[in-house]
TrEMBL record:
The protein's name in its UniProt record: UDP-N-acetylmuramoylalanine--D-glutamate ligase
One GO biological process term: regulation of cell shape
Mur ligase C-terminal domain: residues covered: 310-423
E.C. no: 6.3.2.9
Annotated family: Belongs to the MurCDEF family.
NCBIfam families: murD (TIGR01087)
Gene behind this protein: murD
Subcellular localization, as worded in the UniProt entry: Cytoplasm
Binding, ATP: G111, S112, N113, G114, K115, S116, T117
Chain ranges of the Mur ligase central domain: 109-288
Pfam family, one: Mur_ligase_M
Gene Ontology MF terms: ATP binding; UDP-N-acetylmuramoylalanine-D-glutamate ligase activity
Keyword Nucleotide-binding among record annotations: yes
Length: 446
């Protein structure tokens, strides 16, 4: 009998897993409680993958030999509980992709903030150096789809904690851990330790010839490292001390050290601005050195890199008011980084689906830099509670258009309207991209 693979969730990762499973000869069934994108339905049909939408047929799911779970489905979901009760193994899509990647190498990037920027920069450096590689994971194509449709000798993968939760054998040749701040605690029983453990799964299977690049200035990471034994090559990066191997920034110079090589560049050469992006750039350069990419190529790539859509993206200046789209800021720490880099008075657009946010983290920056807060969410009570009396005005809006119009009303020439919501987008929008695009559309219509 053929091996039955059930995929739960029909987004990019689920459909990618289904296509790869089918290609590898599995008996594949995909099930989604919601409704699938038409494009995905066409792809599944063309590949003769059986699927259902708008609900789950329990007996079909429980007949699985193995289940690939969408990263968005929590453990407390009743269907997952039933699968676990039946002792059916559950893996993530990146685990399935890893199984069939062949001899390809993997650079894997995780962290609470800066993942997408760092992943994109590493990919850009690799492409600049002429390497045949793919950008996969939480960004772009799913890893499984890439393996199925266009396998490469190198994958640069952005990986979330949700994807790491269900790995077994997944192993990256080079792993990067950028930072760990309180995020997604609703998925981790509101225990920060559980979330930390999840992030550290990126080196669960690290071998003696692999590399672990990590932020040595992040106390959460360094404290965790004291508690565990690792049999891999550690490459820390820091702005507080000078590691023997890895990287550091002192004054305005970044120095990288790997084996007998040493190189120093000015941070003024970096395309990405702001202290947090200096960390991201340093981590990316160390990864590139591990991949034996020539220094000249690395330098060219970090100088001409274009930052991402929805990440501190300058949209337009309207009558002297600058509009910045940072819709990708889905947690309070991301918003902290955005505010920290602001040099003009700010009208801040906040709000969305709360993930257990502690707004106390940005209180001092809000006091110092924010003139007005425009809330954009279904329930803004937590934002009011945090900032009423600290900032005036604070108003509620229920669409991107209303938020942009209200912000423009409060702004004076020389101010910045910053969309940096600190929340997930699922209450009013499909995702953070949809939120960012609606914001940009509203700015264009002013």
């Amino acid at each position: 009998m053929s091996y039955r693979l059930v995929i739960l969730g029909g987004g990019e990762s689920g459909v990618g897993a289904a296509l790869l499973g089918k290609q590898q000869g599995y008996d594949v069934f995909l099930s989604d409680a919601g409704y699938l994108n038409e494009r995905y339905k066409t792809q599944l049909s063309e590949s003769r993958v059986e699927f259902e939408e708008g609900g789950h047929t329990i007996h079909k799911i429980l007949s699985a030999d193995e289940v690939v779970k969408s990263p968005g489905i929590p453990e407390k979901n009743e269907l997952i509980k039933a699968i676990r009760a039946n002792s059916i193994p559950v893996i993530s899509e990146i685990e399935l992709a890893y199984r069939f990647k062949g001899d390809a190498k993997i650079i894997a990037i995780t962290g609470s903030n800066g993942k997408s920027t760092t992943t994109s920069l590493i990919y850009h450096i690799c492409k600049t150096a002429g390497l045949d590689c793919a950008l996969v994971g939480n960004i772009g194509y799913s890893f499984a789809r890439q393996v199925a449709e266009d396998p490469k000798p190198l994958y640069v993968a952005e990986i979330s904690s949700f994807q790491l939760d269900d790995i077994k054998d997944f192993r990256a040749d080079v792993s990067l851990l950028l930072n760990i701040t309180e995020d997604h605690l609703d998925r981790y029983e509101y225990k920060f330790e559980n979330y930390i453990d999840s992030k550290f799964r990126i080196i669960l299977n690290a071998a003696s010839n692999d590399y672990f690049i990590y932020n040595a200035d992040d106390e959460v990471i360094t404290n965790k490292l004291k508690q565990i034994t690792l049999h891999t090559n550690l490459l820390p990066f820091s702005m507080n001390y000078e590691p023997n191997e890895g990287g550091y920034i002192k004054g305005n110079n970044m120095t990288l050290r790997l084996h007998d090589e040493r190189t120093t560049w000015s941070v003024y050469d970096f395309a990405l601005k702001g202290k947090h992006n200096q960390y991201n750039t340093m981590a990316s350069c160390i990864a590139a050195m591990v991949m034996d990419i020539r220094k000249e190529k690395i330098r060219v790539a970090v100088t001409d890199f274009q930052s991402l859509e929805h990440r501190m993206e300058r949209v337009a200046t309207v009558r002297g008011v600058e509009f910045i789209n940072d819709s990708k800021a889905t947690n309070v720490n991301s918003t902290w980084y955005a505010l920290e880099s602001m040099e003009k008075p700010v009208i801040l657009i906040l709000g969305g689906q709360d993930k257990g946010n502690d707004y106390g983290l940005i209180e001092d920056l809000v006091k110092e830099k924010v003139k007005a807060i425009v809330c954009m969410g279904v329930d803004n009570s937590k934002i009011h509670k945090a900032f009423d009396g600290l900032v005036s005005p604070i108003i509620d809006t229920a669409s991107a258009e209303d938020a942009v119009n209200a912000s423009f009303h409060f702004a004076d020439k020389g101010d910045v309207v910053l969309l940096s919501p600190a929340c997930a987008s699922f209450d009013l929008f499909k995702n953070y991209e949809d939120r960012g695009r609606q914001f940009k559309e509203a700015v264009k219509n002013l």
